[in-house]
Task: inverse folding
């Protein structure tokens, strides 16, 4: 419950146009300090949980172990973690490409789902809680690679969860 409360607080900050990406190039020591705030840590943890759910616990665990083994007692960059995940998925999913969309964009997407009979349409757009005119920038080009999971009436949550990667503005 406490973690969910933290996630929702972080999402409220991230839903403002004055938010910042989890990862970005820095030019000054002030920018370095800004990167290590609650938003970055909580959003980062949420993104790792999302990735774990999408890849499955075993695949995610193997990727973490590969990353820790390959960078034991050495420095690492964020791409190194995604590269380890790519190795474990054997190229079936470009984890680096997917996760980059989450860590280099500020904010998060709003996914609209419309059902017409057996056809499900999904569309993404950047979610803004409140537009702050002094900080407003156009984010119309933002595109996230969103892992969606779903079940049908033939399944239940434990036996056959299906996955779909929304990597366009809309999909069916």
Result:
């Amino acid at each position: 419950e406490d973690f969910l409360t933290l996630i929702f607080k972080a999402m409220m900050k991230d839903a403002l146009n004055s938010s910042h990406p989890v990862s970005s190039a820095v030019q000054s020591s002030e920018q370095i300090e800004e990167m290590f705030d609650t938003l970055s840590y909580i959003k980062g943890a949420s993104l790792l949980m999302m990735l774990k759910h999408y890849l499955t616990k075993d695949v995610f665990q193997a990727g973490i172990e590969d990353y820790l083994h390959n960078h034991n007692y050495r420095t690492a960059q964020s791409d190194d973690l995604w590269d380890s995940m790519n190795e474990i998925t054997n190229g079936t999913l470009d984890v680096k490409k997917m996760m980059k969309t989450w860590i280099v964009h500020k904010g998060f997407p709003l996914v609209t789902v419309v059902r017409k009979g057996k056809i499900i349409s999904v569309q993404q757009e950047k979610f803004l809680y409140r537009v702050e005119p002094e900080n407003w920038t156009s984010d119309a080009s933002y595109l996230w690679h969103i892992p969606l999971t779903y079940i049908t009436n033939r399944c239940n949550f434990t036996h056959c969860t299906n996955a779909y990667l929304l990597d366009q503005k809309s999909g069916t």
Q: What stands out?
A: The chain has six helices and five strands.
